[in-house]
């Protein structure tokens, strides 16, 4: 898998969150939100979605639909997919409502958001200007914007309309559901048109790295819910282990995962709690994500994409060269030389990976050196009555000795979490494109 794209996705995810908004001179825009509810795929039952989410952040897409927003030209519609994410927090719904309805305090809630100023309020409508600043050690990648959004409160939800911004067309909706026993389900559902970026930095990066658009919706939703999770939950890592964490889904929930992916043609992902993983003589706190993707092909037809040489076929523009050394019947070492062009800067990487193949439809991998030493994961294919289900679990963390351009990414919020969920999504969808 192209780990360089994972790293860049963390940066782009933060930018995409920061790029939803506009400055309005006129009064409020008349708008009837047509955003699907996060609980609609779960029989409109928040308890079912909460059980599905568990102690994780769950991320999934809705089927494609025709989207029209009042900010678009008349009679102009696009086909897009809203992405939802869910998390359960240990507090009552009144506390959640109070937090989400207090827009000025978003500056202390979401990283990189420096100021939130209410420009106008009328009934359940608010117009809020947000100031965002993302400094990095690389001046050309610094990001500073002021954006304005229109928020509309309705019961246990807040709908938001994007009017003009680096990502000029988009909408989203917060929802919260009281589960009892001091537990609340919080969800976000949103869509943004990544095919028409206006900001210089966004336009350059997405033009040079179009694959990043595949992972940004999942990463953005993960960013937002991670902020809320950290407000209400302890961030202590789980017990140390040498094994990869698992989602522990029931057979019924695996069927739900399969149905969601089959209908949306997108992965279903879970951002897992932090876990201590043994590395040599010490432990590292890692943040794993697990993603599932449905395919119409059989595992035998797809197993070629789990092989180390396949990554160059999936990412030919980034992987410039690679060498493979077979160690035994199950293991091999791969050295990937990667260059990621961002339009404003080129970033070279050297990844050294070891792959272990228990069988043709399963692989485990971990870093053995190179520029990114803290990386682990596994992939497997499972046969269904019709088609296959791909399971990807991975985590990466930039260490203190990484090259400057990699270490610069550590200035991004949640840099230890976002690359995995975005990278898993990109890999699964690239396989889908190649497999047909």
3D structure, described in words:
- The protein is an alpha+beta fold and 436 residues long.
- It folds into 2 domains: 40-232, 2-Layer Sandwich (Alpha-D-Glucose-1,6-Bisphosphate, Chain A, domain 4), CATH 3.30.530.20; 238-435, Alpha-D-Glucose-1,6-Bisphosphate, Chain A, domain 4 (2-Layer Sandwich).
- The chain has 11 helices and 21 strands.
- The strands form 3 sheets. It has a 16-stranded antiparallel sheet with strand order 5-6-7-8-9-10-4-1-12-15-21-20-19-18-17-16, with helices on both faces.
Radius of gyration: 21 Å
Helix content: 25-40%
- Mean pLDDT across all amino acids: 89
Number of domains: 2
The CATH class of the largest domain, by name, is: Alpha Beta
CATH topology of the largest domain: Alpha-D-Glucose-1,6-Bisphosphate, Chain A, domain 4
| Low-pLDDT residue intervals, each spanning 5 or more residues | 20-26
Q: What spatial form do the alpha-carbon principal axes imply?
A: globular
Distance between the termini: 19 Å
Structural class: alpha+beta
According to DSSP, the number of beta strands is 21
Largest sheet: 16 strands, antiparallel
The second-level CATH architecture of the largest domain is 2-Layer Sandwich
Strands of the widest sheet, in order across it, are 5-6-7-8-9-10-4-1-12-15-21-20-19-18-17-16
């Amino acid at each position: 898998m192209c780990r360089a794209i994972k790293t860049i996705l963390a940066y782009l995810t933060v930018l995409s969150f920061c790029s939803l908004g506009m400055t309005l001179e006129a009064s409020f825009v008349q708008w009837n939100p047509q955003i699907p509810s996060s609980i609609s795929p779960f029989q409109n039952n928040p308890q079912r979605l909460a059980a599905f989410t568990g102690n994780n952040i769950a991320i999934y897409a809705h089927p494609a639909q025709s989207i029209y927003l009042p900010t678009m030209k008349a009679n102009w519609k696009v086909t897009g997919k809203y992405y939802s994410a869910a998390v359960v927090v240990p507090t009552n719904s009144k506390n959640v409502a109070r937090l989400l309805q207090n827009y000025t305090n978003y500056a202390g809630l979401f990283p990189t958001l420096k100021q939130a100023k209410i420009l106008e309020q009328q009934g359940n409508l608010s117009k809020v200007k947000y100031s965002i600043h993302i400094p990095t050690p690389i001046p050309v990648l610094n990001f500073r914007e002021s954006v304005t959004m229109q928020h509309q409160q309705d019961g246990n939800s807040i709908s938001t309309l994007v009017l003009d911004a680096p990502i000029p067309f988009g909408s989203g909706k917060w929802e919260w559901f009281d589960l009892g026993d001091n537990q609340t389900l919080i969800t976000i559902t949103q869509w943004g048109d990544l095919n028409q970026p206006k900001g210089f930095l966004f336009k350059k990066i997405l033009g040079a790295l179009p694959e990043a658009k595949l992972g940004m919706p999942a990463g953005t939703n993960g960013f937002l819910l991670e902020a809320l999770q950290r407000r209400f939950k302890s961030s202590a890592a789980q017990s140390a282990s040498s094994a990869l964490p698992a989602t522990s889904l029931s057979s019924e929930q695996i069927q739900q995962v399969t149905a969601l992916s089959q209908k949306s043609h997108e992965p279903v992902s879970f951002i897992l709690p932090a876990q201590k993983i043994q590395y040599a003589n010490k432990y590292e706190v890692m943040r794993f994500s697990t993603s599932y993707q449905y395919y119409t092909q059989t595992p035998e037809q797809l197993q070629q994409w789990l092989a180390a040489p396949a990554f160059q076929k999936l990412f030919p523009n980034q992987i410039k060269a690679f060498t493979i050394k077979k160690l035994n019947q199950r293991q091999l070492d791969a050295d990937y030389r990667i260059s990621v062009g961002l339009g404003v800067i080129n970033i070279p990487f050297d990844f050294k990976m070891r792959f272990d193949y228990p069988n043709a439809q399963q692989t485990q991998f971990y870093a053995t050196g190179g520029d990114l030493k803290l990386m682990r994961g596994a992939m497997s294919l499972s046969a269904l009555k019709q088609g296959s289900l791909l399971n990807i679990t991975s985590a990466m963390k930039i260490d203190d000795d990484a090259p400057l351009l990699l270490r610069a990414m550590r200035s991004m919020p949640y840099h230890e979490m976002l690359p995995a969920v975005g990278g898993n999504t990109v890999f699964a969808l690239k396989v889908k494109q190649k497999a047909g």
